[in-house]
Design a protein that fits this description.
Elements (H helix, E strand, L loop, with lengths): L3 H21 L6 H25 L8 E6 L10 E5 L3 H20 L6 H20 L3 H22 L4 H30 L6 H10 L4 H18 L8 H8 L2 H11 L1 H14 L1 H6 L1 H20 L4 H21 L3 H32 L15 H15 L5 H14 L8 H23 L6 H9 L7 H19 L2 H11 L17 H9 L4
Antiparallel strand pairs: 1-2
Length: about 525
Amino acid sequence: MPDTNSLFLLVAILAPMAAGAVLLFGSRMSTATQRAISAFGFGWPLIIGLLLYWLFQPNVGGYNFEMRMPTGLESIGIYLHLGLNGISMPLFMLAGVVGFAAGLYAMYSKAERLHLYLALLLFMQGGLMGTFASVDVFFFYFFHEFALIPTFIMIGMWGGAGRRGAAIEMTIYLTLGAMLSLLGLIALYVKSGASSFSLPVLRDYLAAQPLADTVQGNLFALLLFGFGILVSLFPFHSWAPKGYAVAPTGAAMLHAGVLKKFGLYGLLQIAAPLLPVGGQAWFPWIVWLALGNIVIIGLVTMAQRDLKMMLGYSSVMHMGYAFLGIATFTAVGAGGALLMMVAHGLSVALLFMLSTCIYHRSQTFDMKEMGGLASKAPVLAAFFVAASMASIGLPGFGNFWGEFTIFAALAGGEHTSWIVLPAALGIVISAIYGLRAVANIFFGQPKTESFAQRLESEPIEDIKGFEKLPATVLVVALVVIGIFPRIFSDDANQELSGLYPVKNELPAYDTAALPSEHEAHEEGTH
């Protein structure tokens, strides 16, 4: 029988879902009642996340708070198997913190049919908690899909201009990514010969009888491109900026901040450790595509005038760093990728929320029309500056340690040190567009006469209490990780050291002949 701490994991998943189910029929409820039910649904995952983090004990190769429940599908090896290890614990916490902030902001939004909007966000929150609490690979995938469905519905119902085209493109890309990753996971289960989808069981089977090199390469390719599309890996990224630009704020915060980490988590926890030879075979492709995220998408980000489009492209760009961390196939690089995922999730959720706050005061997302807003909203300006500095990677925020650790892992590898220079261009690029956005929006003179008149004639309020609280939660989390990164890294390092080598042992690839090297591997000549 599961102990109390194990049941907390189940409560973190079911509480938001139960609150969402109640709100589906809450059209006649008062706004205060709807907010109270939502606070229950969003609050429990955060409280449980903090409690379980306090009780967590690192267990290399094992899980804390495990519980297994029958599903009726035991004959094909599917159980509801929950638990947390050093890799999933930080992301479980991320889902709790970002979900709480997004929920607080959504409760006081002016969305039509507020009860339905909050219900869908709560269903999304429950799916996110289940994604990172699942030890069973099938339910890991199932909860992701469960959380993804409300995203499409919210964009279709509450999205901005152009939402239909963006939703269709997003649906096509994410469906393709989901199908490829599902095919890869099923093939991994079948080829392993394991009797269960449980991740520890798969690891044991594949440790005893590793798959052939060609099989590993094929399976890793399915997972790389399946998960990669879901993470907006270049060049499969175009859905993300458009989708985030039209998405309602709560959906953008939860998807960009948390749900998009599903693919990276799958590569970090499943693909790279279970298919090490396959990962090494695809190493050059990961590197070049990740550099495409950082350099090419970074330059595209610099060209944006629309604030939300800039943030969408910026989110795509920073995913490249996490891919590079995974591509080192070392404990240090994987740890840096994990820190980057958590810190980026916090900062991008904060930036999307603040962009909506800016829109409510300026009535535009066009940064070329703004200017001087800090004179009317100095606290909003301070929050936006802090969020921008975190995204750039300023020391004192969590993003710095993620990027620094990834660069250290790249520099320490005999065959990855050359990547440091092109990857470092991303720091310069992000500083340019981040600081320019701050200057264009908050400082200097208004760029257009209409905006100048608005500043002079209209009573523009600074950020309000319901906006300050979620912003403060996210900033505090970024600063805590920035000052004390070991709150996550110590536990993660113990788990990662059992899955990844300490030093990079990749073969010496000829970077001038990457396609032929891959083809040679496929033909079995390596």
